[in-house]
Amino acid sequence: MYIKYDESELFEFFECEPVPVGDDDAGDLIFTYSDNEFKLILFLSTYEMYVNISITYKDNIVYSQKYSNVLEINQIERQNIKIVLKDGNTLILKKNPQIGVIAE
User: Fold this and answer.
1) Number of folded domains in the chain?
2) Average pLDDT of 1-9?
3) Residue 78 belongs to what domain range?
4) Can you tell which superkingdom this protein's organism belongs to (predicted)?
5) Residue pLDDT, tens place only, 13-24
6) Side-chain half-sphere CA neighbours of 67 within 13 A
7) Per residue, what are the HEC states of the chain?
8) What is the reported pTM?
């Protein structure tokens, strides 16, 4: 099993190429989006099916959480990414008006 996602959607949302962690075939990627002094960081472990989401302000962590059993990641608007978890819950990553994470 692995997380289903379209890398081009993540590229469009984060406005940058992902940074591979370790071996390129391991499926571990880091995506980063910066807005002024805020950063939204998504660590994606494709084959282990988890993500770690962090928000920093002036390089200080204000939010960091690991979510396991991730099924898929989809761009729902240019400014939002939806992360679907196995238990049916979803997470929304947003850029505007302020970087944030919404748990549904």
Assistant:
1) 1
2) 93
3) 4-103
4) Bacteria
5) 999 999 999 887
6) 26
7) CCCEECHHHHHHHHCCCCEECCCHHHCEEEEEEEECCEEEEEEEECCCCEEEEEEEECCEEEEEEEEECEEEEEEEECCEEEEEECCCCEEEEECCCCCEEEEC
8) 0.93
